[in-house]
Amino acid sequence: MSAWLLAMVIVLFFEGAMIGIAPDTWKRSMRQLTEMPSATLRKIGLTMAAVAVAILLFGMTLGQS
Predict the structure, then answer these.
(1) Residues 6 or more apart in contact with residue 25 via CB below 8 angstroms
(2) Is the dihedral of CA 57, 45, 32, 17 positive or negative?
(3) Are 15 and 23 in contact (CB under 8 A)?
(4) With the C-alpha atoms ordered 45, 50, 55, 56, is the resulting torsion angle positive or negative?
(5) How far apart are the first and last CA of the chain?
(6) pLDDT by residue (tens digit) across 34-64?
(7) Where are the alpha helices (DSSP H) in the chain?
(8) Please, are residues 26 and 19 in contact by the beta-carbon 8 Å criterion?
(9) What is the pLDDT of residues 13-25, one digit of tens each?
(10) Residue 30 CA from chain centroid, whole number
(11) pTM score over 0.85
C-alpha cells in the first residue's frame, strides 16, 4: 500500500470515527470554525500542514538510521 493511500485511510478513519462517536460535538466544532475569520483559519491550516511535513521528514530521517 502506498504511503499516500495509507495516509488517506488514516485520515478518513479518524474523521469518520469523530463524527460517528460524537456527532453533536463535531457539529458544534464545525459551527465554531465557520465563525472564525478566514485569516485565522488560513494560519491554522498552514501550521497544521507545516507540522505534518516536519513529522514526515522526522520520520523519514529516523527510518534511514
Answers:
(1) 18
(2) negative
(3) no
(4) positive
(5) 23
(6) 999 999 999 999 999 999 889 888 888 887 7
(7) 3-21, 23-35, 38-64
(8) yes
(9) 999 999 999 999 9
(10) 14
(11) no
User: Which of 39, 40, 19, 21 has its CA nearest to residue 30?
Assistant: 19
Query: Which are the contacts of 45, defined by CB distance < 8 A and separation ≥ 6?
Result: none
| Nine cell digits for residue 11 | 485520515
Length, in residues, of the chain:
65
Task: Tell me which residue of 39, 16, 40, 35 sits closest to 26, measured CA to CA.
Answer: 16
Joined grid coordinates for residue 9: 485511510
Q: Give the chain's largest Cα–Cα span.
A: 45
Cell numbers at 48, concatenated: 497544521
Name the residue type at position 19.
I
Distance, in Å, from the CA atom of 42 to the CA atom of 38, rounded to the nearest integer, reads 6
Q: Which three cell numbers stand for residue 16?
A: 469518520
